[in-house]
Amino acid sequence: MIRIGTSGWRYPEWRDGFYRNVPQRRWLSHLASHVGTIEINSSFYRLQPPSNYRKWYAETPADFVFSVKGPKLITHLKRLRHVEEPLKTFLDSLALGPKQGPIIWQLPPTLRFDHALLQDFLATLPPGRHAVEPRHESFRTNAYFDLLHAHNVAHVISDAPTFPCIEAVTADFAYIRLHGHDELYISSYDDRQLDKWAQQIRDWDRDTYVYFDNTMKGAAPGNARTLAQRLGMPLTSHT
């Protein structure tokens, strides 16, 4: 199972390109008709009410999957410490049912690898698919990889010019975020780069989630569709 999509969908920069002639109220359903998954980013900034998740569920195809970004209250403000209460509040808000995919925990760039801290955090997570995106070079260590492997938590392989790209698969699924190789959140991926990622995904031979986060100039939807084509997936998977 390979799911390829974008990080978010509410981008005014896409209005004159991918969303041309599409009213804003239909942006989600339009994008979901072209990709198999979307990463929900708004949950990182503020707690979303269950009604939002139910609305997004209703606007997407039956076989669609959302990944959900964990709150920055947990990752950036509390920095993974004493998170039981906000974690429960966040998990109770989710109302995606069978469309619930992995939860991604994006760590702040100033957070260094701390084995005990991360072990305690992983132990609090409920069953299901979780992925951790570190942004500090100190996570490039077997101690980190082994810890994720023990909990079947995916390391997020991030491609970006401003934080480390640590390529490691630590779970029974892989999780990739492509933020723009040359310019963060901006640059498009060329044929050579997409060929590389397509081959890497084939080599892993496991469930894989891929999210293009190069959204600021509208490259993400096209890159997602092209990578899907490289992997022999239909350009438009829903009708």
TrEMBL record:
SUPFAM superfamilies: TM1631-like. This is Sensor histidine kinase.
